[in-house]
Automatic annotation (TrEMBL):
Transmembrane segments: none annotated. This is UPF0102 protein B4V02_15435. HAMAP family: UPF0102 (MF_00048). Belongs to the UPF0102 family. GO terms for molecular function: nucleic acid binding.
Amino acid sequence: MGNEMRTGGKDRRKAKGTMGEQAAALFLEELGYQIIARNWRCRSGELDLIAKQEDTLVFIEVRSRSSSKYGTPAESVTARKITQVRQTASVYLHMNGIGDAPIRFDMLAVRLTDEAAVVTDHFINAF
């Protein structure tokens, strides 16, 4: 029974993360970004969103929170997470033969409620 509880919590958290990423993608599309990939994975990690803004390839970390009980979304991005995102982006660039494109790392904070997911902050060149 304890395992079912944990699995249910993980499924709920994943569903909320998906809701946050969907809101982030729509937010970026409204700003004219072209979403290239969602949840791109390799051995080193996962990239939430990869988008193009004009000539710049943008790797976006999406952080969703339903409360500030455990800190703000921005505070949840640790040095270890930044390193992982950068390494994973490097793998993406290598695997796709992209060597000279300008790149950037953004972070989007998303506030979750039972009814909606709303982007509250867009940190351009976050790390």
